[in-house]
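Request from the bench team (R.T.):
"We need a structural guess for the complex before ordering more adenosine-5'-diphosphate. Sequence and SMILES attached. Just send the tokens back."

Command: build protein-adenosine-5'-diphosphate structure.
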Amino acid sequence: MDTGDTGFIMICTALVFLMTPGLALFYGGMVRKKNVLSTLMHSWIIIGIMSLQWILVGFTLAFGPDHYGLIGGLDWLGLKGVGMEPNPDYAGTIPAILFMGFQMMFAVITPALISGSIAERMRFPAFIVFMLLWATFVYDPLAHWVWGVGGFLRELGALDFAGGNVVHISSGYSALIAALVLGKRNGFGKDSMAPHHVPMTVLGAGLLWFGWFGFNAGSSLGANGLAAMAFVNTNTAAAAAAISWVVVERLHRGKSTMLGAASGAVAGLVAITPGAGFVTPLSSIVIGLVGGAVCYLAISVIKAKFGYDDALDAFGCHGIGGTWGALATGIFATTSINPAGADGLIYGNSSLLGIQAMSVGITVMFTVAATFIILKLIALVMKLRVSEEQESNGLDLSLHGERAYSEFV
Amino acid sequence: MDTGDTGFIMICTALVFLMTPGLALFYGGMVRKKNVLSTLMHSWIIIGIMSLQWILVGFTLAFGPDHYGLIGGLDWLGLKGVGMEPNPDYAGTIPAILFMGFQMMFAVITPALISGSIAERMRFPAFIVFMLLWATFVYDPLAHWVWGVGGFLRELGALDFAGGNVVHISSGYSALIAALVLGKRNGFGKDSMAPHHVPMTVLGAGLLWFGWFGFNAGSSLGANGLAAMAFVNTNTAAAAAAISWVVVERLHRGKSTMLGAASGAVAGLVAITPGAGFVTPLSSIVIGLVGGAVCYLAISVIKAKFGYDDALDAFGCHGIGGTWGALATGIFATTSINPAGADGLIYGNSSLLGIQAMSVGITVMFTVAATFIILKLIALVMKLRVSEEQESNGLDLSLHGERAYSEFV
Amino acid sequence: MDTGDTGFIMICTALVFLMTPGLALFYGGMVRKKNVLSTLMHSWIIIGIMSLQWILVGFTLAFGPDHYGLIGGLDWLGLKGVGMEPNPDYAGTIPAILFMGFQMMFAVITPALISGSIAERMRFPAFIVFMLLWATFVYDPLAHWVWGVGGFLRELGALDFAGGNVVHISSGYSALIAALVLGKRNGFGKDSMAPHHVPMTVLGAGLLWFGWFGFNAGSSLGANGLAAMAFVNTNTAAAAAAISWVVVERLHRGKSTMLGAASGAVAGLVAITPGAGFVTPLSSIVIGLVGGAVCYLAISVIKAKFGYDDALDAFGCHGIGGTWGALATGIFATTSINPAGADGLIYGNSSLLGIQAMSVGITVMFTVAATFIILKLIALVMKLRVSEEQESNGLDLSLHGERAYSEFV
Amino acid sequence: MKKIEAIIRPGKLDSVKDALSNHGVNGLTVTQVIGCGKQKGNTQIYRGVEYTVHLIPKVKIEVIVMDKFVEEIIQIITTEARTGEIGDGKIFVSAVENAFTIRTGATGEQAL
Amino acid sequence: MKKIEAIIRPGKLDSVKDALSNHGVNGLTVTQVIGCGKQKGNTQIYRGVEYTVHLIPKVKIEVIVMDKFVEEIIQIITTEARTGEIGDGKIFVSAVENAFTIRTGATGEQAL
Amino acid sequence: MKKIEAIIRPGKLDSVKDALSNHGVNGLTVTQVIGCGKQKGNTQIYRGVEYTVHLIPKVKIEVIVMDKFVEEIIQIITTEARTGEIGDGKIFVSAVENAFTIRTGATGEQAL
Ligand SMILES: Nc1ncnc2c1ncn2[C@@H]1O[C@H](COP(=O)(O)OP(=O)(O)O)[C@@H](O)[C@H]1O
Ligand SMILES: Nc1ncnc2c1ncn2[C@@H]1O[C@H](COP(=O)(O)OP(=O)(O)O)[C@@H](O)[C@H]1O
Ligand SMILES: Nc1ncnc2c1ncn2[C@@H]1O[C@H](COP(=O)(O)OP(=O)(O)O)[C@@H](O)[C@H]1O
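Reply to R.T.: structure attached below.
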């Protein structure tokens, strides 16, 4: 065990934790005043539920001893045997319980990301059931495939440094399906659904960016040069994507917006996630620039064309940004940064891009199908969507019996 | 000295620092619009005052060479002799000045916790005098008893990993006394005193949770397995308590609220504080589940029955949650997690629970009596409470000459 | 390489990053409702632009191989050769890429500080051009002079632990010039320009204080006793200055304000920046007390007398506080804290104060002249200031096409 | 000249506004209000304590028009703002003696 | 029909509302306003600069009632809203020509 | 007694208020409103989607005065609130039947 690595990963774990309360604010600022608490609640209840799910079953399903490359065994149920000694299979210099904790924060934020697409209209009990099933039957297996020793995508040679597939692609495409299954918000495309509190969203974006350093740099599982490289790449791509988003929106709409800069930064953070520990800073600039532009176009043009109501653009940011990031890793990865990785297209190796594309394809197909089935099964048992009256009164009042702001002195 | 431990504790110190500005927001969102700045000011002025008090006299009173198990000597007045070398009595691998700094943040947040109970009605000069006296005559001795080498509660064998007694029980019961001495807010039980800005409270809760990792994990004073275990326990109990609070409120009132999830999380963080480094993650689930439910009941049922006006539930969260946590440590502690600790009730040792109860009893008696005396003494010299007119106009305007929000464009 | 140092500095880098989103909120709360997004945007667009500028040219200009003590060579353009191995010239125990990243965050926040003085009236394209030129022709050379191996102010023996000159004096005086060149806001001195959201400013101040631990303690570039000392000094001076500000404002205006406590804390953080690693905690108290009072007077008395419109007091806090801090270092520095430093006036060495004063003088003259020239050059090519109508409608709507808050349900 | 004050559900503001402007009524002023009437208030819960809030968010639309348009406008508002549930709101009509356009100085019906 | 507009202290809203509803007056509409009159404004301080703010927060209650209730209602409001200090506020009465209930289409006094 | 309602640009509130009080008009009540008229709304952009917002922030000033002051006050408001650009706003005058000062019980013109 190494105190430097242990201390560093412990703080990284705290940073990744902070991302979910940050996401709550990022999302909360974008909804209408009457739904802000219900939106915050999505993230917060997930912190509660997933923290327990992970300890009880999630961790062992994802990282427990492999079965057929598909799933971890139940050997570590309730953290049995996961203690203060390192587990060299995953991280030889930090306590096994810390590795578990670090991974927990990923298992927490991923379902929370989905909640952006179904904001302002989903029933709370259905939301909870959906999230629990999704975590158990989508996230845990997928984490095993990509990161678990013996996981089949890992064996394939797909590169995913900090969770492009497991976190962003999976949540992004699931969010799209959930938005489609739930249908549009009443008044979508007619009433103004402008964000009720942009500074809250900007604050959330700041906390996300801050926490993302823990997410990406911490994914090296030690305080070393690779972590530092991932750190710098993370910042670089976020910065580049913020710039590219506001430039593209200036060309498209004539103005650069603060919401755009914040959204672009998040798009860039998503895009660099899979490649953060495999590419150079200069490549990160390109990954960010493309990431910001692609997500902007997905959200402002493609979404408008197809007309689905991905309320807070969970698909537009995470699905699209994550896909680009996974492919970009296939293009820009270099063994000069990470010998444990592989060379990408621009370093003369075209096979990696294919592997990356295949792993994206598998992830998308699996999550899309599984999410659809889960939602349809739940719909057999309970209503997914609030009543029209509840929706018009706002979910804060109708579901939670609260109002966010009391207006009078 | 160890760079890993030193770096880790330095960041933990920063995290614990952040808890007080976080608490300011947690509390600030819950008061009425006209009192939000005065509420933020409580926490902020305490950061200022206590940082200086601690350096000048607090640290040496608490950790200076022991006198009769009751108080530290004045040898380290103004940090004389507290330098960059470790002090092996307390932490052999980090600079003594860092240990001092880490402890300082605890000395800062503890009085700030009290301010929740007297919100919206205390005069500012009386508040400052109260806090200074309280820190010097309550906190500093208590910290010595529990944590100081030679302190009598420490010698007794009471377990308090990160400050259940010193921080939460002491502040919680003092808060109750302060609320009783000051009396109810005008209009209490009649006018609506709904929180003016729930998202601000949720943000504050997020920052508290984040900072609490430093509080609890940092209390191991090194970047090691025990710190990691405390870290995971902290998160687990907070998550469990958030869940249990919203479940109980759903059973009781028919709805789960965002304010409830945030309050529950804080209750869980309080409850796990004394035991974080002595119990297993599975025990933490139980500690959290019970903690959330108990605090909910204290706040919504017992407070209503007795009718005292603990405005922001400083007693309900910290007094009750801290008491439960101290007792829970007597139940769930295990030497398999921490050989320096002891086994609790469920591991067949019933004496620990008795010791814990005794240490709670002593703490409660001491703080209750001392707080009462301090407040009564101050009342001889100055008014404790604002005038009716100041209260109705709001403390922001009448005490500080500011308004939090300017409403017009 | 040392994992403890590396992990610590990586987290410090994240902390310093967080200061700029924190600054955005600190500033954003102080403007009028109609300009809050444009104010947040100033900081955010700078994060984007400067992160890229630094990687591409800034770092090598500042830290690249010295030319005549004046500027770094272009050898490290685009981070060529800046890799995972340490560069012992600057930090022998952490990866060179991490040193680059840590410094990057300083290069980001410095121009963002300037934006406070020109808030609510500058055109966005002119702002971007100004900032790019300023970073390249003012910040990068200045950083080289003070911190670069071979830099002439460094050779002179001037002490600047964490950036009094490079960060605060440079941005503060530049801010004053920019405010003078742009002119006053319409209605200045007549209409109310009260902060629209003081809690947002308080939140920002909290994040700044938190991040400043990374700024100052991280400037020791290792997790060691000096870092811990700088950490404690930072907190101490901030606390003392918060207190002194509210005491002075109480004497002057009869009331202590929350905005004052937050402003005072920032003033204290500025004041301790150059000396954090050279003075004792007791000296930090004095530095903070004087710092808070001096900045208060500069802002409330001197600004009123001269009538310039430094909208959010970038000069009053950073220019004045930084100057005091640099001189205070000449007074209070002691080799007992930092053998690599020097003794100050109160330790019997009067020459250091002279050197400090000289280095302040050079910095002021250089930044004042350069900022003036840059702005005048830009004014030849494009308008610096928005139209009267844009200003009265608010920059959020007129420049960015957004509103921060949608008022209706 | 009459002033028509309509207190309606906030969610109906957009449709009412659009309908009015389709009928050539462009000038109007909107205020955020809270009100009570037959509609029951709602219950809010904070830390286990229930508050009944009787005053419910509404918006008030004010239109000053020539007498001859009053009926039509009431018709439009009624149609657009109605859901049939309690709480749809009220319309009040009162006399206005004079109007001025600040910009042009126009008075009386010219000012509308 | 008359409209009674009462501009009162924000802190008195609850008592006035309750008193009115105890006397059977259930319909009313409330607006957040700021106002000035004899009551002096307050001084605010931001970074050492003093601002005098003349406009003080108040709330405006509007009740439209049948003529015969006017006196009683004014009585109730006056009693509940009075503290005796400057700034208690004003009540204004004016004529309303017609009223409509959007939901039912009822008009005139039926609509109240 | 008349009620003068002026809907003006928010930025003009201070000058109008000051001018009125220089002419001895101290009592007035201000409401934050949004409105539309000849002035075109503005376009807002959120994540690439354009919204046209027709309702523009304004403030409404209400002054209740004796009949004889009406003209002068309209004059003052018009002068101070005018920029000459579309959107300067409107002034409406209507009759008020009675006024009461809550604190003193004064009625009619005494109450103003
Ligand atoms: N007499 C009244 N005076 C002023 N406002 C009223 C009056 N009656 C109702 N209102 C306003 O109209 C709104 C709707 O009235 P309510 O009685 O709840 O529904 P409905 O109009 O469908 O019967 C109330 O919230 C209130 O703002
Ligand atoms: N002439 C008036 N026209 C409109 N509103 C008025 C008028 N006079 C007073 N008000 C309103 O009544 C409030 C209270 O009036 P004020 O003169 O301060 O106290 P009091 O009514 O006790 O004499 C003011 O803040 C303002 O909103
Ligand atoms: N007929 C009307 N009824 C009520 N309010 C009106 C009416 N016409 C205009 N207003 C108010 O006056 C404001 C300014 O009117 P507008 O037509 O835009 O400018 P101008 O008065 O310069 O012609 C509007 O935003 C609206 O609030």
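Two things stood out. Chain D touches chain B through nine residues (CB under 8 Å). The first helix of chain D runs from residue 13 to 22.
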